[in-house]
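Dear U.,

For the methods section draft, I wanted the exact inputs and outputs in one place so we can describe them consistently. I've listed the two proteins in the order they'll appear in the manuscript figures. Please don't edit the token lines directly; just add comments below if something needs changing.

First protein:
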Amino acid sequence: MPIKHAAVKQLRKDRKRRQRNQAVRSELRTLTKRLLSLLAARKLDEAKTLIQMVASKYDRAASRGVVHRNTAARSKSRLMRQLNRSAA
């Protein structure tokens, strides 16, 4: 257990941030899985609208430091590539 007041406060802040970051990461995973299931079912119209939302969520998470910007770019790129392959 921390002894200094500042360390206690930092622990509180870290816990809040961890919960917030976990929620964002969980939402990203859920949306990604939903998009992949739409692609597997060949529902391209729904997938195209969902991929815009997913890309936006990845960008927002990267800007807030939840995921690294290169990780966000890589994930978006892979999803876009799968969508384009399904459309072709």
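Second protein (the one for the lower panel):
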Amino acid sequence: MTAIGRLGRGVAILGFALLLSAATSSGAGAAAPAQRGPAEHVEARIADLHKKLHITTDQEPQFKAFADVMRDNAHSMEELFHQRAQNRDRTATGQLHWYAQLTTAHADGLNKLLPAFDALYQSLSDKQKKAADAAFVPLRQGRPAHRHG
């Protein structure tokens, strides 16, 4: 498989809503249902995060705002993937244009999510913040730092 093919396949697998919601999942201990759509996946992750953070009644408005942005982002990404399925251009330029469109949508979604998450995070107790920090550890995992020499 070509690098562009791998890139396109990897991007398709990582869709924004699933990427973000995976960052809030519990990891290896979580059981995954057979075929769950993006909306169901995001709803499960929202419920999981609500439980892990022990959201209080006073924190519900901030959590709801955060969850609503997650839902909106998931819907936007689902529409984008639907559009992609209708577009049969699998040329190198077509793949790169798709990747640019997807990464732009990803960045836009994160920029919408950040204010809602910041407000929620500020409302959390220290114990809840530690739980949030742990829930987002997968976002810190990536490729190793580049070493010179």
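Candidate sentences for the figure legend, describing the second protein: Residues 3-24+37-136 form one domain. The mean pLDDT is 79.

Thanks,
Y.
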